[in-house]
Design goal:
819 residues; transmembrane; ligase; globular; O-antigen ligase family protein
Length: 819
Amino acid sequence: MSNPVYGKQAQTSTRDDKRSSLFWVLIVGIMLFFIWSPFQAALFNGQMLDFEKPVYWALTITSILLIIAILSYYKEFRLEEQRDWLAVMVVLLPLTYVLSLVSAASHYLAMNMVIVQCIYAAMFIMSLYLLQDRLGNNIIQTTIMSVAYLIIGFGFINWFGQWVLAGKLVDWFSSAVYQNRYTSAVMTDTNGLRLTSVFQYANTYAAFLMAFFFAAIFSLMKSKTWFGQLTHGFMLVPILVSLFLTLSRGGLVMMPVVFILLLLFFKPARQLLWIIHCAVSGIVSLAVLSPITNMGLQLNQTYNGATAAKGWGLLIAASLVAGVISWLIQQYVAPKLENGMQGWASQKFSNLWLPVGSVVIVGVVAFLLIGTSLRNVLPENIRVRVEGINFQQHSVLERFQFYEDASKLIADYPIIGAGGGGWATLYEKYQDYPYTSRQAHNFFMQYLVEVGILGFAIFMAFILFVFYKYIRGYIQHAEQRDSYFLYFILTLSILLHSILDFNLSYVFMGMLVFVGLGGMAAAMHSRPVKRLSLNPAAFRPLYSGVIGIIAIILVFTGLRFIQSSNASTEARQIARTSQSFDQIQAAVNEDLSIRPTHPDSLILLSSLYQAAYKQTQNEQFYTADEDLLKRGLKAEPFNKSMTSNLMSHYQLKNDNEKAFEILQDKISNYKWDITWYSNLIQQAFALGNQAREQEDTAKQQQYFEAGLNAYQQVLDGVAHINNLPKSIMITKPFNVTPEIALNTGKIQFMSNKPAEAAAILQPFLNEDLSNATNKEIVRYYVAATQKQGQVDQTWYDKLIQADANEKQQIDDLVALQLQ
């Protein structure tokens, strides 16, 4: 090949006239795919219908590209060395997800993760062979950097309030545009406005920016042309400013770690240049950060063209200043450093001195920005975030709790895991306090949850082997270091940040990682594997045939799933605007004919059957609904909506005992869902009181005890929450509600325990007696006090004054002969 890689070199074409037309089809296809994919919300695997179709399109596209790659690189398939075996080993990654289907908590989400892993495996296989070609490698690196810069520019278009322009630029091919606006390119949360660009999530955008900040500096130092140096230098300020605008503390914390790790791979002269470029871009970025932040905050409230133009002018001017300085450094300073530091570079451990010193410098800068008045140079919203960087702030404590809860989940699904989407499906069962997070905020923990120890061990062995072999080759072959180091930067940066967040739930980010791994493998220190080698004549048709057949199957699978997703989306749209049973059913059945347990369509059809049964009392609808829900719950046993529909199904025929059994049996799955407890206690009273009226003492006691046990679980949960660190934010309410207090008080009253009933009800007495619940609480409270012979006259008078009929109801309660 034209540019030998580390280790045994592969023989590929060196001249353009020897490259096949398939090579160019593959290159153009990958380029277009990389341009398309980030604007589909970065292909977020959002575990719901709204996000799934772009992922299925990605599967179809990558499978077609893989078929082209197989045809193009057929002669390169062999099992002669370690690199070749990686093309086989990567197939194990989706296979571990296929294996986890056996114990999957959600078949739907698990299948989606199989699809995602197939995309990653395909990208790796293509990259492994394509990037061994010098021209292919250069084109892909240029494409990746260009797309990254487009994403950063797109973010600023939205930050400066020009969201209509941004939407029109991409709405012709993007599924993330709604009403001419790219959804949540600037998101709002409790911290205010946060820049997200295409990702719709600030922390993942921060991980992306961190990776490409270092990639841009490396590209700047590697470039031999003034245009390349100026371009990459120009982009450093927009990247850093964007990083601050994400308000991501994780990005700011992880950035110095990656910065120092990457320093270790350079000689002293380049280390010093690395530090200088970071310093220059950092100083210029801080100089313009406050006005750009304030203008963006203003423009996202009220757009003003003059202010937007001023913002763009300031950003471009600052970027030009940094770009020119960086170009001058590369032109005049870099050569002198390279020559002047050769003696230093020859000394043992010379490449460790500056990284060690940088640790001290980073510590000092962090102290100045966090602990001194220097932090006042930052805009207020960013300063507040920076000041909050410590191990006691809520996001850190919450992540630690996620990891602890994930460990409990892993203990129950240790070997092959809970399947793709296992955390999203099961976290409510294992959470230590009430929170809502369908992501574990740690890619590695989430991976371990999904595929267990077996799958995780295979994955870690795969990536660690690639890293080990690449780093070894990097050390031993200095002449080739620049050719593939970009892939190492991107992969290392994204994976390290993924310790703190769910970056690889964005398939686009995962593609960057696996293309990066493919690039590292293409350049790795590879040795022959004689004992495991197969004759290429035998291996080529076998490997090509197997991968080709799988790719063809995946193409049709992707197309069928797209058809399914379209039908489900159409059914939802029809249901919003039409009451036509036949129209909705037809669309839903089209989906379910492809995916028989697709949750969205199954739940919609169940609701349709139940509505039809209520209107017609036709038993066919009732039977069809029951069969549908039982089939769905077999594949999705933890789906709360399906479970709730099954309870509603039984209540259609007043079979409240079966509904109550479900409430009681499934409470452990939703132990911090206060609504679940409220419904359980309400049903416990209703069924227990019914048994009392029927003089069935055993059943009365059974239901009343179930209600009281649930009430005690609520009290225990509230006590546990009160003992949590104050910095933890409880985003999901969990407390004794008036409804819970009322029904528990009624249980105690009917159990002939008026003192206990009064004690439960008293804290919830409310003078707004126009509210039915408040009125009933006062009624039972007053009756309970009368039962004890010490009526609360004040509340009695208030209730009678509000409703004279209450006197008779109180008398009836007091007159009850209770046991």
